[in-house]
Amino acid sequence: MMSLLTSMRALAVRQPTGEALRCLHLTAVTDAARKGTREKARKKKVKVEVKKVGFIPHNQRDKKINVKRADKHVDDSWKQVSKDDVYVGRYYRWPVYTVAEAIQCHRETHHPSMYNVPNAPLNVEIELNMQGEKATRFVDNFQRMAMIPHKFDHGEDRKIIVFTKGNEEVQAARDAGASLVGGIELIKDITSGELLLTDYQYIIAHPNILAELVALRGLMKRKFPNPKSETLGANLAEMIVKFSNGISYSASKDEYQQNFGLITASVGTLDMDAKHLEENISYLLRDVNTARPKRDGHFITRVLLKSAPSSEQLKIDPFVYVSEFYDKNAAKVKRDAEAVEETETKQATAVAN
Fold first, then answer.
1. Measuring CA to CA, which residue among 305, 307, 324 is closest to residue 94?
2. Which of 103, 235, 304, 331 has the greatest CB tally within 10 Å of its CB?
3. How many CB atoms lie within 10 A of CB 226?
4. Confidence (pTM)
5. How would CATH label the architecture of 97-153+247-322?
6. pLDDT by residue for the chain (353 residues), tens digit each?
7. Which superkingdom heads the taxonomic lineage of this protein's source (predicted)?
């Protein structure tokens, strides 16, 4: 009986009143539509295989990619030293050159018979150990200006604005090569909007105008002159020469390895005198070493000399110019000197007010 009703595509249903029967007809089209929908649903079902994963630390669970990266601090002290000039480099220690030898090697590769770029820039690549005083702390990225004894064309447009009072200081700043020098009138022009500070890369000030310069603190923000950045001082000529001819460099930590920092800077061109280039390198290394943390161990780990378009990189010994390990006595002397300089600046500011 049931098969007969199904074949007839009809079903008898009693109404709620219980008096009459009503037939519901199910067409073949509706049945075919249901059949197609069920088949599509079966095809969409995909068996998901759950892979068992070991314990993951809480600070790595949200990372999609967890790649083991090689340590960027190169330590080849365990390798043997080559006994001749022909060897496979990866199996032996890197040869260490003097600065004069490295410059001569680059000059040979840049000779007119080879690359033909005798005035190519000489770049220094300084690798740092950014580990702080504690194991979980690291030195912050920093940007500095290193004063060098022998200037060269660094290819940068550096405009310097100087704030000072007094005719002698103004004239000294102009003679040193400042782009713009002024006092209270200059502060008024900036406040009224007639002059923009964004047109100048460096801002230098004398302590005698510091009280009036406070009105521009909001506009200058981090560029506001201070003794730590060496933009506030009585010797305007020396500061102007440093910021116009010095080496601007920045140290930045690696994204994945926080204890590895890198500095890349140009110290001159290959056609300069080798002694002048070496002195520029020594001044740069000394300036970088002033940012070292108060801990034992190396801060500067490796120094390479490069010169484009050559891919050759030559290792030099930086500890000829800076101390290899942290010297507590030298650090104390430096702190005392900075304290004396800061006190003198405050006294000069108080006298000016």
1. 305
2. 103
3. 15
4. 0.72
5. 2-Layer Sandwich (3.30)
6. 444 444 444 444 455 555 545 555 555 555 556 666 777 777 776 666 667 767 777 777 665 555 677 889 988 989 999 888 888 888 999 999 999 999 999 999 999 999 999 999 999 999 999 999 988 899 999 999 999 999 998 888 889 999 998 888 899 999 999 999 999 999 999 998 888 888 999 999 999 999 899 989 888 988 899 888 889 988 999 999 999 999 999 999 998 899 999 999 999 999 999 999 999 999 999 999 999 999 888 999 999 999 999 999 999 999 999 998 887 766 555 655 566 666 665 555 555 44
7. Eukaryota
